[in-house]
Amino acid sequence: VVIARADSTAVRLPPVAAPGPALARRVEGLESTAIRNILALLASEEVIHFGGGIPAAEAFDVSGFRDAFQAVLDPHDGSGRRALQYGLVEGDVALREAIAERVGRRGIEATAADVFVTSGSQQALDLICAACIDEGDVILVERPSYLAGLQRFALAQADVVSVPCDEEGIDPDALEDAVRRRSPKLVYLVPTFQNPTGSTLPLERRRAVARLAERYGFWVVEDDPYGELRFRGDPVPALSGYAPAHAVYLSSFSKTIAPGLRVGWMVAPAGLLDVARVVKQSKDIHTSAVAQAAIAHYLAAGRLDGHVRYLCDVYRERQEAMSALLAELLPDGARWTEPDGGMFVWVELPEGWMAQQLLDAAIPRGVAFVPGQPFFADTVSEETLRLSYSNHAPGRIREGLARLAGAFEAVVGGARA
Amino acid sequence: VVIARADSTAVRLPPVAAPGPALARRVEGLESTAIRNILALLASEEVIHFGGGIPAAEAFDVSGFRDAFQAVLDPHDGSGRRALQYGLVEGDVALREAIAERVGRRGIEATAADVFVTSGSQQALDLICAACIDEGDVILVERPSYLAGLQRFALAQADVVSVPCDEEGIDPDALEDAVRRRSPKLVYLVPTFQNPTGSTLPLERRRAVARLAERYGFWVVEDDPYGELRFRGDPVPALSGYAPAHAVYLSSFSKTIAPGLRVGWMVAPAGLLDVARVVKQSKDIHTSAVAQAAIAHYLAAGRLDGHVRYLCDVYRERQEAMSALLAELLPDGARWTEPDGGMFVWVELPEGWMAQQLLDAAIPRGVAFVPGQPFFADTVSEETLRLSYSNHAPGRIREGLARLAGAFEAVVGGARA
Question: Mapping DSSP to helix (H, G, I), strand (E, B) and coil, where does residue A201 land?
Answer without folding.
Answer: coil
